[in-house]
Structures are given as C-alpha cells and as structure tokens.
Amino acid sequence: MEPSEPTTHTIEVDERVYDVLARTAATRDTDINGALRYLIEAPAVPGAPTTDDDEE
C-alpha cells in the first residue's frame, strides 16, 4: 500500500474570522495555520455557566 499524497484544502472565511485568527496567531507567536491548530485542539468552553443544584 502506497502512502497517499498530502492534500490541501482551501476554506474561505469572513474577514472577521480571519481577524480573530490573525490576532490569535500574533498572541501565540505563530502563523494562521498554527492558530487554527490551537483553536481546533482547545477544549470546548460551555456557553453558559453551569449551576449546581446544591448552590443557591
């Protein structure tokens, strides 16, 4: 079995998304691809705070 050739994919994003990627790349001292890897690997953050039934 021969190894498959690497492929590239182009994804078009809104300018605001690109801005977030650029800022993330700058703060992490990397490029856009590094920022994408970081954001993909980051753990999910809940959108709303979780409440405990015991707390009031």
General description of the model:
By secondary structure, this protein is mostly helical. 41% of the residues lie in helices and 0% in strands. The chain contains two helices and no strands. The longest helix is centred in the middle third of the chain and has 13 residues, at 15-27. The protein starts with 14 loop residues before the first helix and ends in a 15-residue tail after the last helix.
Summarize the entry for a quick read.
The protein is an all-alpha fold.
Which terms would index this structure?
56 residues, mainly alpha, 2 helices, 41% helix
Topology:
Elements: H1 15-27, H2 32-41
Helix pairs in contact: 1-2
User: Mean pLDDT score, rounded?
Assistant: 83
- Backbone structural class: mainly alpha
Strand content: under 5%
**Distinct helical segment count:** 2
Profile the largest sheet.
Answer: none
What global shape is seen?
Answer: extended
- Gap from first CA to last CA: 61 Å
The ordered H/E elements are HH
Low-confidence stretches: none
From the alpha-carbon coordinates, what is the Rg to the nearest angstrom?
18 Å
The proportion of residues forming helix, as a percent range, comes to 40-55%
What's the count of strands? 0
